[in-house]
Specification:
Layout (H helix, E strand, L loop, with lengths): L1 H56 L14 E7 L5 E14 L7 E2 L2 E2 L8 E15 L2 E13 L2 E15 L3 E9 L3 E12 L3 E22 L5 E14 L4 E4 L1
Antiparallel strand pairs: 1-9, 1-11, 2-5, 2-8, 3-4, 3-7, 5-6, 6-7, 8-10, 9-10, 10-11, 11-12
């Protein structure tokens, strides 16, 4: 009996120490989980931000196609005509020209421009095919309104087409190019966002995607200005090879 009473305090101390250790382990695990959650919180936020960014970057074009990549503010001045071939949906387009040998078809009739010194053609609500290159501008589609030197033709659907029209000026206020833009070797300036300004010297510029304004003049040498947003910018030249994705 005396031995049992004498051993009881030791057992009590043993249980007390064991209990303390268990509680300590539980507290340590809890603290570790909290720290881990806070640490992972940044990663989760980053993952969410990355996911949102991916959704924004993989934007859908007017024709339901998607171009992966990061959208950046883009501004280009160049001395070459851009090359593009695309399905176009254009609110406003204006061009001036003196190439009256080229046939312009309006609702299957030829547009007569022989008495003009210079034509100013405004096209509104155009949907169809656009092909632009050094050989000129080609259109084939439908427009809501056409204005030639102040004479307006308006209808729900005006069929129009012409091929390789040599123009003096071309202005498209806002349009989207999903199929890519190529500017052959030339000189100019390139601005991307607020950080990159580059002088182009016999460089080739390629864009996977462009949405913005285009202004081309061919009077005294070629002058091309593009401003908007772009994706997949490639610059290839003797001094610089740059890829922005």
């Amino acid at each position: 009996m005396h031995d049992q009473q004498y051993k009881s305090p030791h057992r009590f101390r043993f249980y007390l120490v064991l209990t303390t250790l268990v509680v300590g382990v539980i507290l340590f695990s809890a603290v570790r989980d909290v720290v881990s959650q806070r640490s992972n919180g940044g990663s989760v936020d980053a993952a969410v931000d990355k996911s949102d960014s991916t959704i924004e970057e993989d934007s859908t074009s007017l024709f339901g196609k998607t171009v992966p990549g990061k959208e950046v503010d883009f501004k280009l001045s160049f001395n070459e005509i851009p090359t593009m071939k695309k399905d176009a949906k254009i609110d406003q387009m204006e061009l001036t020209f003196t190439d009256f040998n080229n046939k312009i078809s309006i609702n299957n009739d030829q547009l007569e421009l022989g008495n003009l010194e210079k034509a100013n053609l405004k096209i509104s609500g155009f949907v169809g095919k656009l092909n632009l290159n050094e050989g000129g501008l080609s259109l084939n589609g439908n427009a809501k309104k056409i204005d030639v030197n102040g004479v307006t033709l308006s209808s729900k659907g005006i069929e129009m087409s012409f091929s390789n029209l040599n123009f003096d000026t071309l202005v498209i206020d806002s349009f989207e190019v999903k199929e890519g833009v190529l500017l052959s070797s030339g000189d100019g300036t390139l601005t991307v966002g607020n950080k990159l300004n580059y002088v182009l010297e016999q460089d080739t510029v390629k864009l996977a995607y462009f949405n913005g304004k285009l202004d081309v003049a061919t009077g005294n040498g070629v002058s091309t200005n593009m401003e908007g947003i772009a994706k997949g910018i490639d610059v290839d030249g003797s001094l610089l090879n740059m890829n922005l994705r």
